[in-house]
Amino acid sequence: MSEHQELKDDLVDLPISESDIVFAGKVWNIRRERFTLGEGEITREFMDHTGAVAVLALDENDNVCLIRQYRHPIRAREWELPAGLMDITGESALIGAQRELAEEVDLVASDWKVLVDFQTTPGGSNEALRIYLARRLSAADEVFERTEEEAELEKTWVSLEQVVDAVLARDIQNSILVIGALAALAARERNWATLAPGDAPWPRHPLFR
Questions:
Q1: CA separation for the pair 135, 128 (Å, rounded)
Q2: In the chain, which end has fewer C-beta atoms inside a 10 angstrom radius, N or C?
Q3: Which tens digits make up the pLDDT trace of 12-31?
Q4: Are residues 27 and 78 in the same domain?
């Protein structure tokens, strides 16, 4: 590849001959699709995901708001960014992120930017995830009641540098936090020039293609 070649994923719409939900779950479904690739047909099963948003809330001293909660599939209480599913019909990604920040850590922000977008597991899920950078923080007017895993949720503030150190030491491994922290450090080194407006288009999310 030439060093001057643009490095960018291509969005492709292949002919799909079959598309069925083979398992309907409480949170998300498993879908089986048969599609044409080249001269042949391929069948794949994948998690049909609503998508999600996360928030890296950064205070005036570049401290990050982290939460810790139990995640049963990995049998761990892990450090995370406030995040949640896009499971409210018609709700924009930005409004969803603002809602999650208020519901999980009782914060609001007046400055919202898109930090980074990514696909969590493209070989087995269509989940698209957007991480927002939220700044100019203040306390929310309402303190929300938390249930299930969130009932024991812990909240703390840690410097961005300490988070990155923990990532590189492999002491924290939540993918959203890992990507968000490294992206924030890189964006800060570029004087935040890589940030996008909070309402920037999101063409990689299945609902917005």
A1: 23
A2: N
A3: 889 999 999 999 998 889 99
A4: no
